[in-house]
Input
Amino acid sequence: MAYIGKQPTVGNFQVCDAITVVNGQAAYTMQVSSANVNPENANHMLVSLNGVLQKPGSSFTISGATITFASNLATGDVIDFIILLGNVLDIGTPSDDSVGAAQIKDDLISGTTALTSAPADTDEFLVSDAGTLKRIDYSLIKGGGKIGQVLQIQKVDTYSQTAASWTDITGLSIAITPSATTSKILVTAVVNASKEQGGGNGHFRLLRDSTVIGVSTNGSGYNGFGMTDQGVDGNTMSVKVNNYLDSPSSTSELTYKVQLYNITNSHTSYVNRRASGAGHGATSTITVMEVLA
Output
């Protein structure tokens, strides 16, 4: 333990060297083995003058290594002894194997501040290694690949688009806040869709906020999961699924969403319904899972 000023002497009982009284003098220097000593406190001393124990504070005071009696001593007075008791309020360091269960407070945990998030990699725990108590960093014992949280949004209504541009699908987005920058986010989008016959293809893609994720390298620009025109009179729906493991390196709220590109704007793309519009509705979902490092 660090101290401001002089570190107290703990349980160090010492007898000061003999002091010769000087006629008419009240202040004397205390020494042990010819070296000056500074008592912890006047109340931590036993002082005998002429065979009578002196009262600290009234019969004598101390300042550093100097003891000053309440009145000047005279020839014939005898300072019998000065015993320094050290810091009698501190038991010091217990001897090895001397502390048992009865001396330890039963509940050491409830009064301690609780962590409100996952421990840092450098946080330390105590473990017993074959009976020897050792400390270990959290980074060495934490489990990886566990799921921290799972969120899902289900779109139950229908959506249609004629625009030949990337457009957010209303209701098919979800926000998640990772607990650590080392977490990954597994995104799964399931879209039930159809396209009017003769209208060419439609495409979907995943985004994190405004950033497209899972980008293709083929240069087409259609980096998502596509659909073709669906059968005669658009009477068929197909299920489109896309999975992507994202590494956002963030603890801020993130929004994952699906966009649709309708290639031919004269033929409509639909979500959750057949292009013909006759019955057989469906639902679409987007699911995000935080995968812990």
Residues 228-233 have pLDDT under 50 and may be disordered. The radius of gyration is 41 Å. The chain is about 0% helix and 40% strand. The chain has two domains: 14-84, 147-291.
